[in-house]
Specification:
The complex is a heterodimer of chains A (about 550) and B (about 350).
Chain A lengths: L1 H24 L12 H11 L1 E2 L1 H4 L1 E8 L1 H22 L4 E7 L6 E6 L5 H11 L8 E6 L2 E6 L1 H26 L5 E5 L6 E7 L5 H8 L4 E6 L14 H7 L8 E6 L16 E6 L4 E2 L3 E8 L8 E7 L1 H13 L4 E6 L2 E7 L7 E8 L1 H12 L7 E9 L1 H54 L3 E2 L1 H30 L4 H33 L2 H34 L10
Parallel strand pairs in A: 1-19
Antiparallel strand pairs in A: 2-8, 2-18, 3-4, 4-6, 5-6, 7-8, 9-12, 9-15, 10-11, 13-14, 14-17, 15-16
Chain B lengths: L15 H24 L6 E2 L1 H4 L1 E8 L5 H10 L6 E4 L6 E6 L7 H9 L4 E2 L12 E11 L1 H29 L2 H24 L3 E2 L1 H31 L5 H11 L1 H21 L5 H42 L13 H9 L7 H6 L1
Parallel strand pairs in B: 1-7, 5-6
Antiparallel strand pairs in B: 2-4, 2-6, 3-4
Helix pairs in contact in B: 1-6, 3-4, 5-6, 5-7, 6-7, 6-10, 7-8, 7-10, 8-10, 9-10, 10-11
Classes of the chains: A alpha+beta (about 550), B alpha/beta (about 350).
Amino acid sequence: MKKKSLLHRTIIIVLVTLAGLYLVIGPRRRPTLKDFTWSGIKATLASNIHLGLDLQGGSHLVMRVKVEDYLKRLTEEAFSAAQNAAKDAGFEIKGGRPETGNNNYRVILEVADPSKINDIKSAIEQKVELGDTSVWSFSTSGAQMIWTMTGTAQRSLSADATKQALDIIDRRINALGITEPTLQSHGAQNAYQILLQMPGVSDPERVKDILKGQSRLEMVHVIGPQNPAPATTYPTREAALESVGGTLPPNRNILPYIERADTTDKNQAQPPTQWVVVDVPAIISGDEIRNATASNAQGGSVNDFAINFSLKKGGADKFGAWTGANINEYMGVVLNGEVRSIAFIRSQIFDSGQISGRFTQAQAEDLALILRSGALPAPIEYLEERTVGPSLGADSIRAGVRASLVGLALVVVFMLVYYRGSGVNAVVALILNMILMLAGLIVFGATLTLPGIAGMILTIGMAVDSNVLIFERIREEILSGKTIPSAVEQGFSRAFITIIDTHVTTIVSSLFLFVFGTGPIRGFAVTLVIGLLVNLFSAVYVSKTIFIWLLSRKERVESLSI
Amino acid sequence: MFQILQQVNVDWLGNRIWFIGISVLLMLVGLGSAVFRQATGGQAFNLGVDFKGGTVVTARFKQKPSDEEIRSALGAKGIRDAVVQPVTDRTDTVLIKVPLEEGKDGRAQVREALNQFGTEAAPGVELEADQNAGYKIIGTDAVGAIAGAQLRNKAIAVTLLALVGILVYIAFRFEWTYGAAAVIAVFHDVLVTLGFFSIFQIEISLNVIAALLTLVGFSVNDTIVVFDRVRENRKLHRRDSLYKITNDAINQTLSRTVITNGLVFLSVLALVLFGGDVLRAFSLALFIGVIFGTYSSIAIASPIMVWWEQRVEAANRQAALSYSQPVRGGVRTPAKTSGRDAMAPSTGNRSTRAGRA
């Protein structure tokens, strides 16, 4: 009976050990002779274990979509659209304002004749989406018509904006050719955060700029006399305001216009900012862009780059109609609220155009990429940025491995000196524990991080504790006069209760860390949990099997090296 | 057989006043340091960028300028309150900590200042490989205000949740008094360790929180080993008082306590000495934690458990005596046994309860 169970146990242990060894140092392809050399084993190990960013190098970015800006823009757009719709329908609007901020988004219109509110409302809601009661709740207060955005709508619109931003960022990352990025929403439901991890990218500045790059592109009509007169610009904003009579009418806007200097000549002073008056709404917006590419500007210097873009069908129709009717008028290309170039319409243009603004090649290429990937619904801000260069990661690995080996060596020496023969048990169990722990990490696809290495060192501590508990108990039982076999039996069964309790408590707390923890805390919890689970096998099952084997070799066991 | 400790017979619980006194003193010193620093305009704890926000840049130089030179280069670019901290493992590397400034990119700011010492190696090119470069930024940790608050709240929440998890499990396996005693002891360890962090102004980062949670695990571990023995001994020696049983349990498990914690201590020491700079604060927290975790299972958890259990017992006995028949649904013990408890000598324990667990 005993023999048979020993055989069973041995088979199980050998199989598990071989499986563990294969997982850790076995190549995932047909093995070659080189895989059995030391450097070959090291290479396979490195490719099998998924290293965290802190060890292999890379960047970890947490960004937040500024959803309040998105809601603000929606409200403002709804306000000006409503105002225009009411006027188009022939109603008099005395005033009003969009109210934004503090989780409160309202469109307020003040009408001249309160008795017509219902007519105005239906006229507006035919054209503007303010009639959607799932988003806007309507109320009146005297002559004021008030549409308030509901809390539910705020949350769902914000979530949509985050989702959109995630898609656009995804497109931009792909266009940049970043390998194996992790992109996901981050934090609580209403945090509107996005986590991006890029292994191998340890200098993410350009990536960061491109990801948060705004691309609100518009083609606008610049007010002023036609060509051949030059485009009308004003030296100051006040002067521009003066030209429209002191107050800005709702169908006009004043934008800055910066004529770029030749970027090749650094000594040349930047020309001063000028101001132009433009028509509202814009002729077409960036949503209509189908493609954008950077190209060397015609006749320009090497560093004079422009962006060619083509428009989608709907945009091309609008653009063609407008340009056809406005030959010799001036048109401005507005990027992120700044006029980048002004040109007059030579002939009707349908589906393509050019933004020339004396860009460098890199600027033009990045901008084209941003335009291609679509506009972010709202600006994003970076909350957290962690980058680790490959050399720093390598330093960490070296330090971690060194500390683990020193720790392991100290433990091994002590166990062999203090427990003699039985110490071998503990050492075998410890080494098996390390192998299976790594195998566990690979099986669960977990990442090994620097705190994870610390977790491994602590697992060594816990693993050796199990053996110490068992051995001390066996010693106690021997001292109390029991026979060796029964002392071993008792020692294991008594200590086992304690081992279960200590392991479960630590696993319980580690699970909390894993589920709710962040970054380093998680990496730590993973290795600890896997290590403890493995330990129940290596420190109890394997160690006991070795004892059974020792005891089975003689008929009567008089002494035990412990 | 070579043994460190043989047949120890120490009256641990008899010294409880001393033990608890020392602990209270240590906690008061830690608390005093935190309060004093806060009140005198300093900081109670040296919170790292993880919790406070800010940027830490790790820069490696071909020829490292002195910390003073780096500081003045930073100052020249308008970066005030920057901390320049050498890395103990490598003389060519330095940590530069820049406080949070709204709308500014800490890494770009530092780079601008460091350009005084030569150009930075191009992205994707190692410092050694770039002939013309003078330095390279090899790591950044930048945390904004929102993320900092988020990480701080999460760390606290996770720690408390883990403690509750432990309390529930021990209450389930033993008794809730045992669980409470263990959790109080663990809380004590965390407070004492934090006290040390305040006194020596060691930086508290996310890694340190991980270390605190590990020490929670270890301390509870130790406590459970003792409590487990108490539970077992209660079954074997029904006539002994809980006081004696607990003392015996501590003595019986003492050699295990010394060996295990000695080994853990050695592993942690290896971490402190060889684990590198990134893990240093983590290892230090554990280093302090392991010492107090061991101490608290003997000096804090056990006395509290005994005191609490005795009070509960006394209350039960009182309840049993004031009624002529066994109490139904008495405070804690099943009605069946409370009668016998009442008649047992003053040293009697509720063996059936211990047996249940």
